[in-house]
From TrEMBL:
This is Vanillate O-demethylase oxidoreductase VanB. CDD domains: SRPBCC_CalC_Aha1-like_5. One of its GO terms (biological process) is methylation. Residues 12-146 form the Activator of Hsp90 ATPase homologue 1/2-like C-terminal domain. Keywords: Methyltransferase, Transferase. One of its GO terms (molecular function) is methyltransferase activity. Belongs to the AHA1 family. The keyword Ubl conjugation does not apply.
Length: 150
């Protein structure tokens, strides 16, 4: 089994615009569909409730790892942690990394999520499958977001 998800998309927007969509917690929340309660700060937890229909009862929390302006943003989280009765806090989180690179057309955004081999075996495949599809959708979401809000 592959233990890493990688998605790439070229966005017709400057790096500064894509960076703001990624790291401003309100803008991130709009395209990612989560209402975050505060800004992204390296070393701190950011959380809020998901706004996807049918998932509004679920809370998303990430621990911001690094913020390197207009180049790199990363956080850890517990992938596909959807069972409200389960405590995921003892699991090793996966690492989500956003890399931005200037191109002739705008910005190449690469998202990787790694560390699935550390997820408990009974939920590893489903977490990988759901996040693989989820990141494909999120790439479309950010593409539409920066196109509509230059």
């Amino acid at each position: 089994m592959e233990h890493r998800i990688e998605k790439r998309i070229e966005l017709k927007a400057p790096v500064s615009r894509v960076w703001k969509a990624l790291t401003d917690h309100e803008q991130f929340g709009e395209w990612f569909r989560v209402k975050l309660e505060g800004p992204f700060v390296a070393g701190q937890t950011a959380g809020g409730y998901i706004t996807w229909p049918g998932y509004e009862h679920m809370r998303m929390e990430v621990v911001v790892q690094k913020i390197e302006p207009e180049h790199y943003f990363s956080y850890t989280w517990h992938p596909y942690a959807v069972d409200a009765k389960k405590d995921y806090s003892q699991e090793t989180p996966t690492l989500v990394e956003f890399h931005l690179k200037k191109t002739e057309e705008g910005t190449l955004l690469t998202v990787t999520e790694s560390g699935f081999e550390k997820i408990p075996a009974e939920r590893r495949l489903e977490a990988f499958r759901m996040n693989d599809g989820g990141w494909a959708q999120q790439m479309e979401n950010i593409r539409e977001y920066v196109a509509k809000r230059p």
